[in-house]
Design brief:
This protein is mainly alpha-helical and 121 residues long. It has one domain.
């Protein structure tokens, strides 16, 4: 058995995928916050300087594009990695169940009385 197969059967890869998804979400959030901070600095510079080749509309549109790209990339990769982790865990974890299915013979089944049958009909 290869080491990779052992990791799958133990469920370690699924757990690491979920942890990786959380790390991607955290890193993406930090990136979005830093982008917002940089855009705020540019806006303050435009307001104080007054002379800039960029218009305020350009700043808003370029900032919205950067933010939207960062948000979508972070959400996409975090969801994909989390889904892979869930799928691996669901398919690799052993099914522990106390439920057993037993077949009933015709004699063990409870007979329905005629009155109950007449009421239903």
């Amino acid at each position: 058995m290869s080491p990779f197969t052992g990791l799958i059967k133990d469920g370690r890869i699924g757990k690491w995928c979920k942890r990786g998804a959380a790390l991607i979400a955290i890193a993406g959030t930090i990136q979005i916050l830093l982008t917002l901070y940089a855009l705020w600095g540019e806006y303050r510079q435009i307001q104080s300087n007054g002379q800039t080749p960029f218009d305020l509309n350009y700043l808003i549109l370029s900032g919205a594009t950067q933010l939207f790209t960062s948000i979508m990339t972070t959400v996409f990769f975090a969801l994909i990695l989390y889904a892979v982790g869930v799928i691996i865990l669901a398919n690799s974890a052993p099914a522990h169940s106390d439920v057993t299915i037993e077949k009933l013979d015709g004699a063990e089944a409870t007979p329905i009385e005629e009155e109950e049958v007449r009421i239903l009909n």
